[in-house]
């Protein structure tokens, strides 16, 4: 009995330690975001921190606390594209907003688009392919490095300037094309 008791105590201790480590990491992240974006009141306009399980196309799967995106579609045509938006739009108070996306794998014939889109833009298209007054996108192919006009440069990270009327969300589109 004593062996089971000490084993349970160790497990409970590990869980509590893991929770406190997570809380500490969240606290550090919040402090860093306050330093980077001092004009943003997160109670009024929260910063995007993960992908939205509610604002995605059905071919998109999410894992690891909605931080990892994977494609679950057929990938036969460009119309099989699937997008997911961030949980919150980028607050205009940011001025300049920066985010990074790590591409783990595009698959054999994969195609990945990273960009910004307004709410209501179709989630089964690449960013920028649906007519919208505010859309910015970059297509990533084999090289994963594309320079865009307007002094925005993407090499699996994106930095953007926002105007006061902007209400855009980070958007990731994935599809697999069989050529």
In short:
The protein contains one helix and eleven strands; from the N terminus they run αβββββββββββ. It is an alpha+beta fold and 179 residues long.
Structure, explained:
This is Ran-binding protein 9. InterPro entries: B30.2/SPRY_sf, ConA-like_dom_sf, Ubq-SigPath_Reg. It comes from Takifugu flavidus. By secondary structure, the protein is an alpha+beta fold. It folds into two domains: 1-36; 46-176, SPRY domain (Jelly Rolls), CATH 2.60.120. 20% of the residues lie in helices and 32% in strands. It contains one helix and eleven strands, in the order αβββββββββββ. The protein has one helix spanning 2-36, and strands at residues 51-56, 60-63, 68-71, 82-86, 96-100, 110-118, 135-140, 146-147, 153-154, 157-161, 168-176. The strands form four sheets. A five-stranded antiparallel beta sheet has the order 1-4-11-6-7, with no helix packed on it. Strands 2-3 form a two-stranded antiparallel ribbon. Strands 5-10 form a two-stranded antiparallel ribbon. A hairpin with a 4-residue loop joins β2 and β3. The radius of gyration is 19 Å and the shape is globular.
């Amino acid at each position: 009995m004593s062996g089971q008791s000490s084993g349970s105590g160790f497990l409970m201790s590990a869980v509590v330690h893991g929770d406190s480590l997570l809380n500490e990491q969240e606290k550090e992240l919040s402090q860093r975001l306050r330093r980077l974006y001092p004009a943003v009141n997160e109670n009024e306009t929260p910063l995007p921190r993960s992908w939205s399980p509610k604002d995605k196309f059905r071919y998109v799967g999410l894992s690891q606390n909605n931080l990892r995106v994977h494609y679950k579609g057929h990938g036969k045509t460009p119309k099989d594209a699937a997008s997911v938006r961030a949980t919150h739009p980028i607050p205009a108070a940011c001025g300049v907003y920066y985010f990074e996306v790590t591409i783990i794998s595009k698959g054999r014939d994969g195609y990945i688009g990273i960009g910004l889109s307004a709410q209501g833009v179709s989630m089964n298209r690449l960013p920028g392919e649906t007519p919208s007054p505010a859309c910015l996108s970059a297509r990533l192919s084999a090289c994963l490095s594309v320079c865009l006009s307007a002094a925005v440069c993407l090499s699996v990270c994106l930095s953007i300037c926002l105007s006061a009327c902007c209400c855009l969300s980070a958007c990731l589109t994935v599809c697999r094309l069989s050529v």
